[in-house]
Each structure stands twice: as C-alpha cells, then as structure tokens.
Design a protein that fits this description.
Length: 369
C-alpha cells in the first residue's frame, strides 16, 4: 500500500548561487563542484526535516535538468540543437521560444545506471524515507527525435521510444532493490494530449493519431514499471504542463485523458498540477479507482505570491467530493527547479511555500505523514 505522505513535494529545489556560478565557468573543477553539491544537499535534507516533511530528496541538485540523468548515462545522444519549443510565462500572452539540445544520433545504449551516485549519498545522509525521481521514457521522442538526423538510428519515434524502455525499467528495479520506498516518474508529455495545439503537433509532426499515441504512452509507462511493484514501495507519476523558469507550454483540464490514464496506468499515486485555471477542475477525478492516491498540486512553484491557507483547505474539501480525504495529499504543483537555473523565486520563498504545504497538511489531516 502506498504511504500517504500528506505533505509531499515534487523533488527538485533551487540550486545555490555558488553551484550555478561554478557550472558557468569553462573547464570547472568537478571535485570542487561535487563538494559544493554535497554540502548543499545536506542542507536541503536538513531543511526538509525542519519543515516537518517525512519524505526526502536531494533536490535534483546534481542534475542539469530533471531528465539529464538519462542523457548523461547513455550513448547515442548528441549535442545537436533540436526544434524550438514555445513557452509562456504566467499571464504572458506572448510565447518565448527556447532551444532544446540533445538529439538521438545513434542507437541508445546504457553506459551506467542513472541514479546510483545520487542514491549512495542519500542513503548515507537522508534523515528519513527517500524519494527518487526519474523522467518517463515518453518524455524523449518529442524533444530528442528529429527527422533526417535521428531516423538514421531509428526509423520512427515509436522504435526509439520502446528501445529506451528497458533502460528505465532496469533503473527502477534497481531502485527497488536499493530499498527506495518512493519512486516518482515525471511525465509532462501527457499534457500534449489535453492541449489542442499539441494534439495537432502529434498528428502533423509525429504522424500519429493523438488518441493512439496516448494509448502507447500508457503502455510504455506500464512497461517501464513492470516488475517493480513491491509491498512498501510507492510507484507514482507526476503530470504537469511545463515548468521551466516559471513558464508553461500547455493548458487544459485532465478531462480528455482522465478515464484512460486513471483506469489503465499501473501506478499507486498521481501527483497532479492544480495550481490555476489552466489545470481545469476536479471533475476528472471521478474516474480514479478507489484506493489509488492523489497528491493535489495546489501551491504554485512558479510564483512567489503565497496562497491563502483557507483557500487551500477549501480546495482540498472540493477534491474530497471525488476522492476520499484519506487518499489525498498536498504538494506544490511542480518542482522549483526543473532545470538548473530554476524558477523565478528566491530560496526563502521556496521554503516558505513548502512550509505552507506542511502547515496546511497538519491542519487538514493532523499530520504531514
């Protein structure tokens, strides 16, 4: 059975200025970087405990992005520039194009495990249960596959996608064997199936019917988690609509995917973005099977403005009309640093947001556990 963790978080925290500054220097000293990262992770773990959390991460501090452990651990990914992605700031109608780097140029092969170095340090220093985060394989075809470049190795998106599933499956099984009790896969690409412009992208650029692509995405995630289910281990999936530098790229409620996603995806817990009107209402939660858990991402990791605790409690009560209160938890809607540079908040504002999560959880459930 999945542990509740009434106060939860998405795993990534803002990096300290000294780490960012060192990484900007050409040919920086890696030993110095690792020392800075180690010291900061210890501080991040201590802060999570101080705020009352019972689940701990290293803040993804060692990663360039939430998915860079994959790029760093495989062969076959080049540094070529891919297609631009259009991001939007909250309240900003104008899109901001950003380049995506790293294309598949050859058959992908694992050189090493993705997270072993992170796990080793966490097991030594974490004051409690560890959460490890990984991207879903579904994250990569839309951003790493380019016709004329990647097709030399993989004729289709789908062939590339299924070729990397065993790499992720092996990593997740290794985490289970490491004794990690909470494994979260981050899956922003499901937002493609709820936003009309991205459904059109799937149809035109990927040459696939969006509904068929959704079915395949669910099969991929189930295959990724196959053999990893074990008593005492929580397998979770996080859905969002983009988070880079407090920006977003998709919008729409979960209505278009909820019945399939909640009914067919073999996870214990769903971490769902619900911080503003772009995420829709709680009505799609009616499709959630009894016994599965939902973490309500009601607190924004994009904006410094603090939410009203009374509003948070009211929204939790609204969600409990669809999902029993004992199956709900609270978190920010996403991480604070999906990429190295992080969102447009200060570290103090980040911790204030997490304190709000913990304090509200205690008011609603009487505990953060």
């Amino acid at each position: 059975m999945a542990q509740a963790f009434r106060a939860d978080h998405l795993g990534s925290f803002l990096r300290p200025p000294e780490v960012l500054k060192l990484r900007e220097q050409p040919g920086f000293d890696t030993e110095q970087l690792h020392k800075l990262e180690d010291d900061y992770i210890v501080r991040v773990l201590r802060k999570q405990r101080e705020l009352g959390f019972h689940i701990f991460t290293d803040g993804e501090v060692r990663r360039a992005t939430f998915m860079s452990d994959f790029n760093d651990s495989v062969e076959g990914v080049g540094t070529e520039e891919g297609a631009q992605r259009q991001w939007k700031a909250v309240g900003d109608k104008k899109g901001k194009p950003m380049d995506v780097h790293g294309l598949v140029v050859d058959k992908v092969r694992a050189k090493r495990r993705m997270t072993a170095h992170e796990v080793t340090f966490l097991k030594k220093h974490s004051p409690g249960a560890i959460k490890m985060t990984l991207p879903t394989p579904n994250q990569f075809p839309a951003i790493m596959f380019k016709k004329g470049v990647s097709t030399k190795a993989y004729p289709t998106y789908s062939e590339f996608l299924w070729d990397i599933v065993p790499i992720f499956n092996a990593e997740i099984k290794a985490l289970v064997n490491d004794g990690i009790p909470y494994i979260q896969i981050d899956a922003p690409r499901y937002s493609y199936y709820i936003d009309p412009k991205w459904r059109e992208f799937i149809r035109l650029e990927m040459g696939v019917d969006p509904d068929q692509a959704l079915d395949e995405a669910i099969r991929v995630d189930n295959a990724t988690l196959q053999g990893a289910h074990k008593d005492g281990v929580t397998l979770a999936i996080h859905l969002c609509r983009g988070n880079n530098r407090s920006q977003w790229y998709a919008q729409g409620g979960y209505d278009a995917i909820a019945e399939k996603l909640f009914g067919a995806l073999n996870v214990d817990k769903y971490l769902l973005e619900y911080d503003d009107e772009r995420s829709g209402n709680f009505d799609p939660l009616r499709f959630l099977p009894r016994g599965k858990k939902v973490v309500l991402g009601l607190v924004s990791s994009k904006l410094a403005r603090m939410e009203d605790p009374k509003d948070l409690i009211k929204r939790i009560e609204e969600a409990s009309k669809y999902v029993p209160l004992e199956d709900l938890s609270l978190s920010p809607q996403c991480g604070f640093a999906s990429t190295m540079v992080g969102n447009m908040l200060t570290e103090e504002e980040q911790w204030a947001k997490l304190k709000l999560v913990a304090d509200t959880a205690r008011k609603v459930w009487g505990t953060t556990e």
